[in-house]
Design a protein that fits this description.
This protein has helices at residues 65-79, 106-117, 137-146, 160-166, 175-184; strands at 7-12, 18-27, 33-39, 42-43, 61-62, 91-96, 129-133, 150-153. It has 190 residues and is an alpha/beta fold. Helix 2 links the parallel strand 6 and strand 7. The protein is globular and about 50 Å long.
């Protein structure tokens, strides 16, 4: 726990593998407390992005939808973020940018996020959910079509030569193709 209220968890899964989750608090203009929960989608990662510590770890496995949703439920318990009379939530946003590339575990991520967004489930608005990607272009289109959540792209460079080094996935999906996928993403047109 940080002095600014940020909380970082190291979570041990049933099989002994570990993942991270982070809650970053914020206060709105009316002084109400809320914040973002950053959740993991994989144990390790295959993308080897130079700026990411997870990129130094091998991919062990994808998280199940239950493990992804379990992160959210654990954070709700720890933050005592259960429905109150005022309708305010401590966790107002979810960001899929913990360990792993969420689009490489799309089916499980989508299943978990659909439960979070379902009015008969947790009922968090899709506008409160952001999926962060290193730029897996074909899955970005699918995400936009099926989930319609916000998308954040880790660009980190404006030339292919530099981005090839920082984000090796750029060799498959260079900046021009990535930028077109961003322009085509449904929320970019609203």
């Amino acid at each position: 726990r940080s002095t600014d209220g940020t909380i970082k968890w190291l979570l041990r899964l049933a099989d002994g593998n570990e993942i991270e989750m982070v809650y970053i608090p914020d206060r709105d203009r009316e002084g109400r407390n809320h914040g973002a929960l950053c959740m993991s989608s994989q144990v390790g990662c295959t993308l080897n992005c130079r700026f990411c510590h997870t990129g130094t770890m091998p991919l062990v496995r994808n998280l199940t939808a239950g493990e992804i949703l379990g992160q959210f439920m654990l954070a709700r318990d720890c933050l005592d973020d259960w429905p109150a009379d005022d309708g305010q939530r401590r966790i107002s946003t979810i960001v899929m940018m913990g360990m792993g590339e969420p689009l490489l575990n799309y089916d499980n991520v989508a299943q978990a996020l659909n439960i979070v967004m379902d009015n008969a489930g947790i009922a968090l608005s899709r506008r409160g959910i952001t999926l962060s990607t290193a730029g897996l272009v074909p899955a970005m289109e699918r995400c936009g079509r099926e989930l319609r959540v916000n998308l954040a792209v880790s660009l980190h460079a404006v030339t292919d030569e530099v981005r090839d080094v920082l984000v090796p996935l750029n060799r498959r999906y260079p900046i021009a193709r990535l930028m077109q996928a961003c322009r085509d993403y449904p929320s970019a047109n609203n």
